[in-house]
Design a protein that fits this description.
531 residues; alpha/beta; Growth Hormone, Chain: A; Rossmann fold; 56% helix
Length: 531
């Protein structure tokens, strides 16, 4: 008994059969996929609840890797009974991973301790996953040797990770959401435990009672979790949102929630308020009619973002506009805007108007293509809180916009709150100033959002209007000067231009809203309003 391979596991490392080898190799593939799905699940859930995708994906992956290292270190203390230990780990991962999403939702909705709970969940799953692979390697090496055992485990591990990285964003998240996905993946871990236990039943005979009880208890926990998903969603959404939730949709890009209380219809994307039907007209009238008064002509218009159809609704008030192109990445939003009766009524069915064409494409890539020129470009994007959105506020993006602007054309972009995110506001203005000859700031008070900012830009003078405004409920020729008059307590700040290699607007935006959040009690998804 001098060789290491026979010393550390004499009672459980008899040479495994061909069928057992195939089963364990397949188990490596499955558990690797499950492990990565848990990482993606917690990362996307944290982003949905708290924003800042770069921070939460980085934090989750870093913590997982750290705790997997802890688990790998702990695995060296397992000298025998490798199969029983492996089956026990699978049962524990199935139970903890299966309830992880529901647990984190509950903690966020009812306590102030989301991050400690997140670390505990990541730590528990990470340590268990970190113990799995070393133990499986030592089991497989009894058949193929240490070198081939490690190679085989890593091969199936990497293939499983690839499968998970494709399965999660394209199938699991958009079709099943966080809660059902977690339960489903937990059940997969339990199935692995059950199949392995059955295959090695002779070696596990003396522990059969413990395993039956463990798998039964974990299965009962996941079934209870599944049964309570619907009631739990109602309870959690009631805690997250101030008003009753009337519709939810999960796309591969974001969680869409619609709430209603009386006449107040609200749309949330990943927990951030997009509009309230009570005052959205203030925002959209400024967004469309302000640049229109400076445009040389109004024949063709482009809306970047604006999948709710509200900007298109305002553009359709101009008889001279022959065509409106709406570019919104998420077809879930544009479909909602046409199918949800209350939202479709609010936007006057603008997205199915014969003058409107919707493209569900990435605006960055779409603008790079050769295409038509536009007299008016309306940029109605979410706030620049992540890299994928912040690059759409960059010099390079505005250069692409400028190339699609006709002579005498005008651009307007929403520019977050000049009060709460002042440096982000002026960074957006300074970035536009690099590309366009004339740039003007504008502000409007939107009760649901507070003071909100915009920038109008063009390659001709914006000192004189070209036409009268369409008189809306809020915006008119009389209110034009008020909108363009910057409050005296919001002077221009010296900040960095937003370029793709640095994207300082993300940090400017984050520091502004974090300062606000420190001053108020967190109130869930409705605590931060961000267009």
């Amino acid at each position: 008994m001098s060789s290491e391979g026979t010393t550390h596991s004499h009672d459980s490392v008899r040479v495994i059969s061909d069928n057992q080898f195939v089963l364990l190799a397949g188990s490596v593939f499955i558990i690797a996929a499950c492990s990565l799905i848990y990482e993606l699940l917690i990362s996307s859930l944290s982003t949905y609840l708290l924003g800042s995708s770069v921070i939460h994906y980085s934090l989750t992956i870093g913590l997982f890797l750290f705790f997997m290292g802890v688990g790998a270190w702990l695995a060296q203390s397992v000298d025998s009974r490798l199969i029983p230990v492996f089956v026990s780990i699978e049962i524990a991962i199935g139970a903890l991973g299966g309830i992880s999403a529901l647990l984190l939702f509950f903690v966020y909705a009812n306590t102030l301790y989301y991050y400690p709970a997140m670390i505990v969940v990541i730590g528990g799953i990470g340590i268990l996953v970190g113990m799995e692979l070393p133990i499986l390697t030592r089991i497989l090496e009894t058949r193929s040797g240490l070198r081939r055992g490690i190679s085989q485990v890593l091969t199936f591990d990497y293939i499983g990770a690839l499968a998970a990285s494709l399965l999660f964003p394209f199938v699991l998240l958009p079709y099943f959401g966080h809660l059902i996905t977690a339960v489903f993946v937990g059940l997969v871990n339990l199935v692995v435990a059950l199949v392995v236990a059955w295959s090695f039943r002779k070696q596990l005979y003396e522990w059969r009672g413990w395993f039956v009880a463990g798998i039964g208890a974990a299965l009962a926990l996941l079934v209870a979790c599944f049964v309570w998903i619907k009631p739990a969603q109602v309870m959690i959404e009631s805690a997250l949102y101030e008003d009753p939730v009337i519709e939810t949709r999960q796309t591969r890009y974001q969680k869409i929630v619609v709430t209603q209380r009386g006449d107040d219809l609200r749309l949330y994307l990943d927990g951030n308020l997009q509009f309230s039907s009570i005052d959205e007209y203030r925002y959209h009238e400024v967004l469309v009619h302000l640049p229109a008064v400076f445009a040389g002509r109004l024949n063709r218009a482009l809306v970047i973002g604006g999948g709710d159809g509200l900007a298109a609704r305002e553009l359709l008030k101009y008889d001279s506009i022959e065509s409106i192109d709406v570019i919104d990445l998420d077809d879930g939003v544009t479909t909602l805007a046409t199918e949800q009766p209350l939202i479709a009524a609010l936007n006057n069915n603008s997205l199915i108007n014969s003058r409107v064409t919707v493209y569900n494409q990435d605006a960055w890539s779409w603008l790079a293509e050769t295409g038509d020129l536009y007299d008016l470009v309306v940029i109605d994007l979410p706030d620049p809180e992540s890299e994928d959105v912040a690059k759409l506020y960059s010099v390079a993006f505005y250069q692409r916009v400028a190339r699609r602007l006709s002579a005498g054309g005008v651009v307007i972009t929403q520019a977050t709150s000049p009060w709460f995110a002042r440096r982000a506001f002026w960074s957006i203005g300074g970035t536009l100033d690099v590309v366009f000859e004339s740039v003007k700031p504008a502000t409007a008070y939107i009760p649901s959002f507070g003071l909100w900012g915009f920038f109008v830009a063009a390659n001709h003078s914006l000192d004189k209007t070209v036409r009268s405004s369409v008189n809306g409920r809020y915006f008119s020729d009389q209110s034009l000067h008020e909108v363009l008059r910057l409050p005296s307590d919001l002077p221009q700040l010296e900040v960095e231009v937003n370029r793709n290699h640095s994207l300082p607007v993300i940090e400017y935006y984050r520091e502004g809203w974090e300062s606000l959040n420190l001053a108020i009690m967190p109130v869930g998804a409705s605590g931060q309003s961000a267009k």
